[in-house]
């Protein structure tokens, strides 16, 4: 089943498989349900017509988006290359505890066909295509969407303590286009691809698979929720296995297209 979020004349409204749910159904409500009840609840809920209107990010204003770092070998290599404190990334890749950091509050997230941004005080900016888990209030993985963890590599490379400035700013977090409901087992080996278009031509393309991630998805989720409650659910970006070479940086006007098993998130780039 597939959840989407739409802007209508009456306000925002959720839909399942292309049909509107009743206006009193929120994502917050759905993510309060146990995983084994969610599908049954949606099947039993009558829909009220075809979904129309502008597609919104598949989050609500108070939802939190968190992210993981250095979960793929390629990411570790890139972070070591950019950083003046290289052993930090080698240690966290091999450590028991994963790297977790706050990425965005829901009202700051942008969705499909909305622009992401690059910082004006950075000269080295990249998209990071990431399988983004949807986690319910019971710490269960109930689905996924596509995430773009836009990052300023030069800022983080200067000092690891600058990570929040490299990762958190207006237009740095894109999630969408909707939520595909799935179990963790169904997410273990998904194809993840990226295509960046500049002036109508591809300037970077690459692909990986979620099976190349070092850590199990359940482990990442367990660490996120170990000492922190998410009563209305949360989103967790799981790190990137695709990093452009060091001579590449996003430019204004680029189009970033990320495809995870046929679910496509596309964003233009602004400054």
Which spans of ≥5 residues are poorly predicted at pLDDT below 50?
A: none
The CATH homologous superfamily name of the largest domain equals Fumarylacetoacetase-like, C-terminal domain
Q: Report the CATH architecture of the largest domain.
A: Alpha-Beta Complex
Number of domains: 2
- Which overall shape is indicated by the principal axes computed on the Cα atoms? globular
Broad CATH class of the largest domain: Alpha Beta
Content-based structural category: alpha+beta
Q: What portion of residues is helical?
A: 10-25%
Q: What does it look like?
A:
The chain has 2 domains: about 1-55, no CATH class; about 65-270, Fumarylacetoacetase-like, C-terminal domain (Fumarylacetoacetate hydrolase, domain 2), CATH 3.90.850. The chain has helices spanning about 25-30, 35-45, 75-80, 85-95, 155-160, 165, 215-225, and strands spanning about 1-10, 10-15, 20, 55, 65-70, 100-105, 115, 125, 130-135, 140-150, 150, 175-180, 190-200, 200-210, 235, 255-260, 265-270. A hairpin with a 2-residue loop joins strand 16 and strand 17. The strands form 3 sheets. Strands 1, 2, 3, 4, 5, 6, 9, 10, 12 and 15 form a 10-stranded mixed beta sheet that branches. Strands 7-17-16-13-14 form a 5-stranded mixed beta sheet, with no helix packed on it. The protein has a two-stranded antiparallel sheet with strand order 8-11. About 45% of the residues are buried. The longest helix is centred in the first third of the chain and has 10 residues, at about 35-45. It is α+β, with helices and mostly antiparallel strands and about 270 residues long. The chain is built from 7 helices and 17 strands.
